[in-house]
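CHAIN AND CONFORMATION:

***
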Amino acid sequence: MADQINTLEDLSAVASVQPVEAAPREPVRDAQGRSYATGKRKDAVARVWIKPGSGKVTVNGKPQNEYFARPVLQMILAQPFTITNTTGQFDIVATVKGGGLSGQAGAVKHGVSKALQLYDPSLRGALKAAGFLTRDSRVVERKKYGKAKARRSFQFSKR
């Protein structure tokens, strides 16, 4: 019974215990000074390595503007760098499988954002506020039996 809180002073003494703050995040880099992350979007999965460099982007062994020919897809890849003001400071090597070009661009963007945050933890706030660290979980709904598509029914015939 001696360890019960009986008075207001006892309560304030217990409440004044400072919570332990989380240790500051450390950069995660391999022996070559690269950071690695996996990005996903729809059915596409991208493996991304970033390292300090001149801003060269290689996707599946091809330059960025050759693999992602549409300017919109190139803009999607550039978004994490514009948010963090690190345009042209990192070289990217990405391998991406599955899905279409739009999903693959989103997967590489997600992977680049995660790798940037691992390389320099101070960039995490800007990337998280922009929503680039969150995996977009929207995927194609499966087809159900008794239906023409996922939700569409077969045409109704009165006679």
